[in-house]
User: Fold these one by one.
Assistant:
Number 1:
Amino acid sequence: MSPVPYRGPGKPVHADLSIARSQLGRSTVFLPDRAATLRYGSALARLLRAGDLLILGGPLGAGKTTLVQGIGAGLGITDPITSPTFVIARVHRDGRVPLVHADAYRLGGVDELDDLDLDMDLDDAVTAVEWGEGIAEHLAEEYLLVSIDRESTEAGDGRTVTLRPHDEGWVRRLSGFEAGVR
């Protein structure tokens, strides 16, 4: 099943992937299942380049790691991508761009995140930080906040993904995302 635009709890707009945009570049899409989340991540990966920072937020089990798995697939990464919760950070180097996948859930704050030296890899990799909101924004001037929420609908468990660009560069890149996902 394909992701569909989202306009409130359980209210898909139509079956194509047109994404509603506000004047700030924010977009929200409803993804009906895990497979759609993987496809969405893979499509998002087409926009990504070395130096990009993604900060992922959402409740436990919302699909943050699943989205990163899709991003990894879209980057050509063949290594299994698993949650970095217990190891804090994993580096996957076998794609077109390396992927640093970190989890800030167990970190006590900005100082502990800085101790990971993620900024050492930032220029050369795509960095995705789960649970990073309020802690990882200082790693780069330009970043994309990705909020994921689970929703139960008549069709099953889905999720809403909201992309919030934090600079004009991301706003421009996301403006072409709608056409690139179709």
Number 2:
Amino acid sequence: MGSAVFAASLVPDRRDIMRMPQTGGCLCGKVRYTITEEPQSVYTCHCTACQRLTSSAFSIGLVVAETAFRLSGVEPKPLQRVADSGRVNTRLVCPECGSWICGLPRDGLVRVRAGSLDDTSWLRPTRHIWTRNKQPWITFAAGDEVFEAQPPA
């Protein structure tokens, strides 16, 4: 029995491979989306607003080209808030279940809530923003990009 466990550990873990297209949606399934190109980045945001919005220590998102992102199903509801930078952020949520799906496109990019993907097994954030507000137990991998506040554009 011990050798079977050892042999199984030699099989490569294939969960970290991203397959295209990627799909996702809200909790109730009424808002859906498809992503047809690899994301430009996978990031975590540690600002206090994201901590409150997600009821967690941080939010995790993907940055994808606007041309590679397609919403379907019911029309999401826009909700706005003023960010620490003073910019108005609009997030799109399901009008039925309230799941946060993405933000409005900006500069040809869409920021998608990574937890809304159907397959999250390949996610590995390598960029971390607003880390001055991170929880003290959070650490980052060597080589990751880490920004105390909003990174430069």
